[in-house]
């Protein structure tokens, strides 16, 4: 019996989201006494396997390295995962609650004829978990009666496992063949020198109040001074000010940095769902009634076009 | 090609929900209900594909008690051709819904299934992927653009790092993201016309599906409230407090 974590990676770099899922897996291992393994599925992904093998507390890194897994398409990976769970007697299959984890795990659960449990934030016992529902306005404690638990892990709720200190064995799995059902065509990966939203300790986000994409440079200047990531509300993304991968919220990214600065964001339930677990929240808004002030530790009632340049100047 | 659109009845996105006093769930009495916003986008996309000549018929399906007929009628008013209600009072979980949809999709021999990426009540984000796995169909989740080309559908997907484009063999399952389209409103004449469109009923038993829940909800609680904050008078005061009081700026 084992616990298996699916590694999030791009064939070169193991993503930080994996370490948060591993830490949930280690909590489960403490309760159940089972070993934790990591699966790296990809093509030419041996660097990732090496990185995974040094994570503290991991027993084995299973590597499935073949052409059919180059883009981790669910049509190829989902049936493989379902088979692997049976072969390895996996009791808990975990993945980070990223778009990749969400793309894969429900299908695996369906093939195993078990439930999938999304975005857990607390492990109560080996079959009982807490997860937010209704945009985080309620926390449900759910218990599963299935033999295998298929779980996505909300990264903000679990500390990252240590990247060093482990010495897991690396085991190669047999290659698989392509399903012929889907093809990867292309990818547009946003390039930025700033930290990733879900890993950043400080985030400054802009909303509809920013008026256009060019004005986001005001936020970028501040971000560069304090090492922050730049996020956005859905309204800002919808209006085409910035890219979709910057959206924070119920249906975008969930973040919980030490400092979250919301600029020109009203604070709709769906936006709050993505950031209200931040340690310190600052809101800058010219509407005194804006709901964002209800969750802010520090509210500044001001025009952002005065306040943000001033903030930038004072941080020099 | 027939398109199947799965529609869920949920609490309206603008409602601030409250946890029941006995912690058994969410207070649903007298709460405004609506079509799950992602399902509205799914309906719109199906109708556009029909208008563009890529589809012959749009069938909407919802699983639930008689109340979900309201959402099915709205979908018909928006332009769907006919509706199917899978009649059940059971608290449906994604696996059960996926099995029901799989049975309907097979029976109707649909060429494409479009559904929401996530229901805004349970925030599961599972059903489309489960259906794809059960039906052996490829999946295009979190779609922000779709294009049918011969026997394939090209899907642009919103992923954490940016955008990914894949080609899927039809039949396929698509789940919608918010930017796929801007749903239309139903016109009054179309609302009237929708009353005469067919709405068939079928039971889980007739579809041969066991819908018993796999997860039990032990309790539902409100999240911890944040401590009240303070208003600051100036940027100077803000920076000062972030440095000294909050200790999050150096
Ligand atoms: C199914 C669904 C899912 C959703 N998912 C998300 C999600 O994941 N994330 C998300 O963010 N939203 C989401 N939304 C949208 C959400 O409901 C709100 O519409 C959105 O968050 C509003 O964005 P906003 O605050 O930028 O815009 P608005 O609500 O328009 O607020 C703009 C704010 O800027 C202020 N402002 C304007 N000019 C200035 C100025 N010069 N100086 C200072 N302040 C100024 C205004 O006072 C106002 O408070 C979702 C909605 C639905 C239905
Ligand atoms: N009871 C239901 N009836 C019809 N479709 C549903 C139902 N529940 C979920 N769905 C579909 O599955 C999508 C994703 O839901 P979920 O997996 O619950 O987040 C929804 O947007 C709907 O398209």
Automatic annotation (TrEMBL), chain A:
GO terms for biological process: fatty acid beta-oxidation using acyl-CoA dehydrogenase. Keywords: Electron transport, FAD, Flavoprotein, Transport. GO terms for molecular function: electron transfer activity; flavin adenine dinucleotide binding. Its cofactor is FAD. FAD binds at residues 208, 233-234, 247-251, 264-271, 285. Binds 1 FAD per dimer. Residues 3-188 form the Electron transfer flavoprotein alpha/beta-subunit N-terminal domain. It comes from the Bacteria. The keyword Flavoprotein applies. Heterodimer of an alpha and a beta subunit. The electron transfer flavoprotein serves as a specific electron acceptor for other dehydrogenases. It transfers the electrons to the main respiratory chain via ETF-ubiquinone oxidoreductase (ETF dehydrogenase). Belongs to the ETF alpha-subunit/FixB family. This is Electron transfer flavoprotein subunit alpha. It comes from Amphritea balenae.
Automatic annotation (TrEMBL), chain B:
Its cofactor is AMP. GO terms for molecular function: electron transfer activity. GO terms for biological process: carboxylic acid catabolic process. The keyword Electron transport applies. Keywords: Electron transport, Transport. Residues 23-211 form the Electron transfer flavoprotein alpha/beta-subunit N-terminal domain. Pfam families: ETF (PF01012). The electron transfer flavoprotein serves as a specific electron acceptor for other dehydrogenases. It transfers the electrons to the main respiratory chain via ETF-ubiquinone oxidoreductase (ETF dehydrogenase). Belongs to the ETF beta-subunit/FixA family. Heterodimer of an alpha and a beta subunit. This is Electron transfer flavoprotein subunit beta. It comes from Amphritea balenae.
